[in-house]
Write a structure and sequence with these properties.
heterodimer; A: 445 residues; alpha/beta; D-Maltodextrin-Binding Protein, domain 2; 2 domains; five-stranded mixed β-sheet; four-stranded mixed β-sheet; 16 helices; disordered N terminus; B: mainly alpha; MetI-like fold; 13 helices; globular
């Protein structure tokens, strides 16, 4: 450090020490003081981190573009808050952060079926009081917000709903002179005809693990959960632990799956190892004629090879208007965040009619009922979403999920594969599912 | 009856088996190249074709013009080069010391260093995440470099020790007699002699860190800090389905830097690996 020239070389030690200390203090305090002064005159915006699987850099995903548009609209309306997107494809980074009580991400996108696992971290903000405080309508949703509550509390702002739909290739159904099936009995007949065509999977029943979060997720999500809860809506208990689907309905469902593979010949054995990826690519390529699948994949399959030949119909069930398990994504708040109010403002916006109108352009069936009067829903893509929203209202039902969802899906997939490959009985498969899941529950905290 | 000479039979078997091994190794790569040159529809066609019905380079163009490609490439190069540099900076002096000096608990210490590399990285994931989060060091490029360097440092120390062992001690003794310090001996005498070994260790370290996914995905989840590998895995988890032709093009482009590096240093790499084979 240079000593100022005003000091004479013969200045005493005490004087030199005092000057040095003074310079040191000024050096330290100066920037702090100026920072405080600046802060007082121009407050920096609060930055909140939002974890989502929608990657802003994914040019193939219109939902990501819609998300960024919504964020821009929010930031314009709230100049004091900046939203930074953190991509978390599998939700695992977020779960890890919640478990370790990290302050970021401030909020995150989470699926209804993952919610019990996330709530169990005790790092989520219940929104009931906030909803009441800000007079947010809880009924202007395709399915009332309370239906997705965990232990009687609402832990997220619902963004969208997904109900299984039947996706099919039109030309293949025309080839066998069939209409889209409405019941499982119809699937048996139509699927059998389609599977008789060369190199065609008539009706895909995916029991594999690829493309999802683990276990037989596509089976559980799109088929099994709806099959077992069609009458009565019971899947898992209110405490998100016990598997409470009625035994008779579970066995009936397992028998149906076995028949599709066996008696009906609607589903060739290759489908045993299908996961999300194989069904998606099969529908694209035209080697899978029909599948009960996620409606959010329609656009991608259409543009990825199926084109105008891809059709959709309400999903088959035991009764033609049988209830279907519906889930979606919510925006939830990390209770360890340092910016709770800012996070709430963003969550509230994303669930508001204004925010939902923007995200609807991404192709999801947004959660707010009032949004469906917007002009976008008169476009061909919007009309399809509106039809799906009607399906959600008429046939959708929310159920409780396990806090060990991935483990349950793994057990389910193993049991059904064993039943199919070793010609086991549905009763044996049920016993295996019940026993192994109880063992897993006993080991869980 | 014409009998096949035994030498011809042996040669045929050897060539046949070699061809099979080559096919198994090269086959997936050839399929990846083929898929990367197909459009979306041909990539999932019911009857797959090795030779694309119509060749397109659009996927490669999409990769190179993707808005995050350069950032991801920069991060991949930075983390790999940085980790190798740090590991060598630590490993070379440590390997030299392990080779040339005797000190108390030398063997247990070396075994401990080796043992640390046997701990699965996944086992340390959560505690490391917790530590970094508490210290506010997540999404920090320097920290990622340090973690990756720490992962390859043990093997670096051991390899360098072995390469230095192959250098005759006479050289050190002569230099010491001439008044050289150990630092001078290491930098001016030993280092030039073990260059092939350093190249080999550097290439192995670069390949290991270049292919790393979990470290960056967990400790630097920010989009601007991620590498080509993390971006590639995100393709697989794409919730609107995988674009196989784009993914294959991405995978091939991601592999190119390491392939180029290997081609450039392969002579040194092979020399380094075989340096200890003959002692004279």
């Amino acid at each position: 450090m240079n000593i100022p020239v005003v000091l004479k070389p013969q200045a005493g030690l005490g004087t030199r020490l005092a000057v040095a200390l003074g310079i040191g203090a000024a050096t330290l305090l100066g920037p702090v003081g100026s920072h405080v002064a600046f802060a007082q005159t121009a407050a920096a915006p609060v930055e909140i981190v939002y974890a989502t699987f929608l990657d802003p850099n994914n040019q193939n995903d219109p939902r990501a573009a819609a998300q960024m548009k919504a964020i821009a609209a929010f930031e314009k309306a709230n100049p004091g808050i900046k939203v930074k997107v953190q991509v978390d494809s599998t939700q695992q980074a977020t779960l890890r952060a919640l478990r370790s009580r990290s302050a970021t991400p401030d909020l995150f996108r989470v699926a209804n079926f993952s919610l019990p696992e996330f709530v169990a971290t005790n790092s989520m903000v219940p929104m009931d009081d906030l909803l009441k405080r800000d007079n947010v309508s809880q009924s202007d949703f395709l399915i009332p917000l309370a239906a997705g509550a965990i232990n009687g509390k609402i832990y997220g702002m619902q963004q969208d709903y997904r109900i299984p739909v039947l996706l099919y290739r039109k030309k293949l159904l025309q080839q066998v002179d069939a209409k889209p099936p409405a019941t499982w009995d119809d699937v048996c007949v139509v699927g059998g005809k389609l599977s008789a065509l060369p190199n065609i999977v008539g009706y895909a029943v995916p029991v594999g693990t690829s493309g999802g979060l683990g276990g037989a997720q596509p089976l559980a999500e799109n088929l099994f959960s709806s099959m077992v809860s069609e009458d009565g809506g019971k899947y898992f208990a209110d405490n998100n632990r016990e598997f409470v689907a009625p035994k008779a309905q579970v066995i009936r469902s397992l028998q149906t799956i076995k028949d599709l593979y066996g008696k009906c010949k609607a589903t060739p054995m290759t489908s045993v190892q299908f996961g999300y990826t194989e069904v998606h690519d099969g529908l694209r390529a035209g080697t899978v004629a029909m599948a009960t699948y996620g409606l959010f994949r329609f656009r991608a399959i259409e543009s990825g090879g199926a084109g105008e030949d891809l059709g959709w119909a309400p999903p088959p069930a035991y009764k033609s208007n049988g209830k279907q398990v519906t889930y979606g994504f919510m925006v939830s708040i990390n209770s360890n965040t340092a910016n709770r109010e800012a996070a709430w403002q963003f969550a509230k916006f994303m669930g508001s009619p204004e925010g939902q109108a923007i995200t609807a352009e991404g192709g999801e069936v947004v959660a707010r009922t009032s949004v469906y009067n917007n002009p976008y829903f008169a476009t061909p893509a919007g009309l399809r979403q509106k039809e799906w929203s009607q399906l959600v209202k008429e046939r959708g039902q929310m159920v409780n999920y396990s806090l060990l969802t991935t483990t349950f899906n793994q057990i389910l997939g193993d049991a059904i594969q064993r039943m199919l490959l070793r010609n086991g009985t549905p009763e044996e498969a049920y016993t295996e599912i019940d026993t192994k899941y109880k063992e897993a529950l006993a080991k869980s905290p | 009856m014409y009998a096949i000479p035994p030498k011809l039979t042996n040669r045929t078997i050897v060539v046949g088996l070699s061809a099979l091994v080559v096919l198994c190794a090269v086959g997936p790569m050839m399929w990846a190249i083929s898929t990367s040159l197909k459009n979306e529809v041909d990539a999932v066609a019911a009857i797959p074709a090795l030779i694309p019905p119509s060749i397109t380079f659009a996927n490669f163009l999409t990769v190179f013009t993707h808005k995050t490609f350069l950032v991801e490439l920069f991060n991949s190069v930075l983390y790999a080069a940085g980790a190798v540099a740090v590991a060598l900076a630590v490993g070379i002096p440590a390997g030299y010391a392990a080779s040339r000096f005797n000190f108390p608990a030398k063997r247990p210490l070396m075994l401990l260093i080796l043992a640390t590399s046997m701990v699965p990285g996944v086992a340390l994931l959560v505690p490391t995440f917790y530590l970094l989060d508490q210290l506010g060091l997540l999404n920090n490029r320097f920290v990622v470099v340090v973690i990756l360097a720490a992962r390859i440092a043990p093997q670096t120390v051991w390899f360098i020790q072995n390469f230095v062992d192959a250098v005759p001690r006479d050289i050190d003794e002569a230099a010491l007699l001439d008044g050289a310090s150990h630092r001078q001996i290491l930098l001016l005498l030993v280092l030039p002699l073990i260059r092939p070994g350093i190249a080999a260790v550097a290439v192995i370290g670069a390949i290991t860190t270049w292919n790393d996914y979990i470290t960056v995905a967990v400790f630097a989840p920010d989009s601007v800090k991620r590498t080509l590998q993390v971006a590639l895995v995100n393709q697989v988890f794409d919730s609107v389905g995988i674009s196989w032709s784009f993914t294959m093009a991405f995978a091939l482009v991601s592999s190119l830097p390491v392939i180029v590096l290997f081609v450039l240093v392969q002579k040194w790499f092979i020399a380094g690996l075989t340096a200890g084979a003959v002692k004279g």
